[in-house]
């Protein structure tokens, strides 16, 4: 059944979109830059990080663009002082929640959180660091999980469930005590469902999931592979859709 074409505005520009597309899909297809962290093409969107917020013109309402569908006549603002303020706030809160010490992180220089902070001009944070003592799971023979670097984007959870089909990862706990766990809180090395495919490593935007034996300059994530595999799994091998 063909989708319905609708007319919307993004930053004042009249754009044709398909009914059911998210604001993020339409905006990126039109060349608009909306920052994201928890979003990864091919995975189901969850709106966890709130970095991709946009403003509904005329109302002042802020909406997560990755999970909000476009509607006929909708007018969206993607760039404003208000949006920059709230995006900075979201990233600052992520930085203070755990121990993101870039100089000792395997993803230093190749980290989406670090890149976004630089893009938003964040050179310091205005809030007290929580400085939690988070464990590091090195029980897997090939991979390591450093909870200190995790931003709870759940990209690894969705990749494992939707692309690999193993469903090893999940989020346990509530609020500030939430963390990624595998197989009912087993050590990663004891997780019977883990296929050691490494897809969760590639989907991780920070240094929370990494492969053992890689130096800082070598640990480069290839998230595009996850998007291509997700497209193939869904039957769209041409990878058409959101860039």
The helix-strand sequence is EEHEEEHHEEHEEHEH
Derived structural class: alpha+beta
Gross CATH architecture of the largest domain: 2-Layer Sandwich
Strand arrangement across the biggest beta sheet: 2-1-5-3-4
Count of DSSP H/I helices: 6
Distance between termini?
24 Å
Query: Uncertain segments of ≥5 residues (pLDDT<50)?
Result: 237-243
Rg, rounded, reads 19 Å
Q: Biggest β-sheet, characterized?
A: 5 strands, mixed
What value does the average pLDDT take?
92
Question: Hey, roughly how much beta strand do the residues contain?
Answer: 15-25%
How many strand units?
10
Summary, kept brief:
The protein is α+β, with helices and mostly antiparallel strands. 24% of the residues lie in helices and 16% in strands.
Describe the protein in words.
The structure is a single chain. The chain is α+β, with helices and mostly antiparallel strands. The chain folds into two domains: 5-79, Ubiquitin-like (UB roll) (Roll); 104-233, Alpha-Beta Plaits, CATH 3.30.70. The chain is 24% helix and 16% strand. It has helices spanning 23-29, 81-97, 112-119, 155-164, 199-203, 223-233, and strands at residues 5-10, 13-18, 53-56, 61-64, 75-77, 136-137, 143-146, 169-172, 179-182, 209-211. Strands 2-1-5-3-4 form a five-stranded mixed beta sheet, sandwiched between helices. Strand 3 and strand 4 form a beta hairpin. The longest helix is centred in the middle third of the chain and has 17 residues, at 81-97. The chain is globular. The model is unreliable at 237-243 (pLDDT under 50).
């Amino acid at each position: 059944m063909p989708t319905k074409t609708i007319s919307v505005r993004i930053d004042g520009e009249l754009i044709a979109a398909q009914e059911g597309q998210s604001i993020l899909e339409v905006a990126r297809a039109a060349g608009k830059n909306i920052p994201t962290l928890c979003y990864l093409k091919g995975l189901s969107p969850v709106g966890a990080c709130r970095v991709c917020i946009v403003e509904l013109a005329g109302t002042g309402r802020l909406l997560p663009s990755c999970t909000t569908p476009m509607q006929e006549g909708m007018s969206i603002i993607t760039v404003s002082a208000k949006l920059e303020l709230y995006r900075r706030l979201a990233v600052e809160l992520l930085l203070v929640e755990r121990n993101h010490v870039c100089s000792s992180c395997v993803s230093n220089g190749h980290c989406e959180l670090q890149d976004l902070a630089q893009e938003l001009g964040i050179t310091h944070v205005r809030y007290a660091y929580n400085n939690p003592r988070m464990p590091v799971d090195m029980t897997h023979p090939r991979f390591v999980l450093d909870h200190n670097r995790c931003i709870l984007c759940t990209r690894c959870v969705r990749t494992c469930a939707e692309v690999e089909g193993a469903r090893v990862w999940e989020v346990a706990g509530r609020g500030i005590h939430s963390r990624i766990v595998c197989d009912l809180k087993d050590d990663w090395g004891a997780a019977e469902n883990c296929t050691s495919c490494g897809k969760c490593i590639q989907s991780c935007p920070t240094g929370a999931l990494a492969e053992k034996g890689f130096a800082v300059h070598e640990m480069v994530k290839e998230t595009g592979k996850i998007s291509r595999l997700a497209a193939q799994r869904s039957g769209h091998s041409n990878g058409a859709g959101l860039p």
